Amino acid sequence: MADIHTLLQLAERARPFPFVLDPDDPLLLHPASMVRTIHEICVQTGQRPPAELGELVRGVLESLAFKYRTVLLELQEVTGCTFSRVHIVGGGSQNQLLSQFAANATGCPVITGPVEASALGNVMLQLVALGECKSVSEAREVVLRSVATALYVPQSAEVWQEKYSAFQQVVRRQAASRKAI
Questions:
Q1: I want to staple 66 with a disulfide (CB 3.0 to 4.6 A). Which of 23, 35, 125, 167 is the partner?
Q2: What is the pTM of this model?
């Protein structure tokens, strides 16, 4: 199997939107073969299964980005707030291709970093508890001044909107096929 850098390069060069799937499909939780399961989901939902590794990775990343959009829309509906940007922290913030796809899919700028968000959050809360930082807001400002972040702006909005509609249809088909079982 190729390393993550190679997989992401293959995905970047692959044709856009080779397939979409619901990343929350229970079939994807602990499959004997992830590749075979993705192929089966594509067939079940009337899509052409990925023909090469780059298409497989790209389809998964694009589907994750669409799921981010779904969750963002659900959060907006539940909270009544409109979010103007997305922050990705932790190890996933290092995946530049997924971060760009997330910006494209959500239509929002994506800010990535810090990579070590959990550790930094722990340290900063300890500093607040010790009185070294006066508030959580001040601690956040310290972190923002201390770590590098990256910004991804949405691209190809019309194409991503059209493909999001296809994603929603596939998610509905996956859910319907689960109910039929």
A1: 167
A2: 0.91
Query: Residue 55 in 3-state DSSP?
Result: helix
Instruction: Judge contact between 49 and 42, C-beta under 8 A.
Output: yes
In this structure, what token pair is assigned to residue 158?
């019309």
Residues making up the chain, counted from first to last: 181
Express as a percent the part of the chain with pLDDT over 90: 87
Phi, psi angle pair for 64, to nearest 5°: -60, -40
Classify strands 110-112 and 86-88 as parallel, antiparallel or unpaired.
parallel
pLDDT in tens, 140-178: 899 888 898 999 999 999 999 999 999 999 999 888 877
User: How distant is the alpha carbon of residue 167 from its chain centre?
Assistant: 14
Q: Can you tell me the distance from the alpha carbon of 124 to that of 102, in angstroms, rounded to the nearest whole number?
A: 28
| CA torsion angle 9 15 19 22 (round to 10) | 40
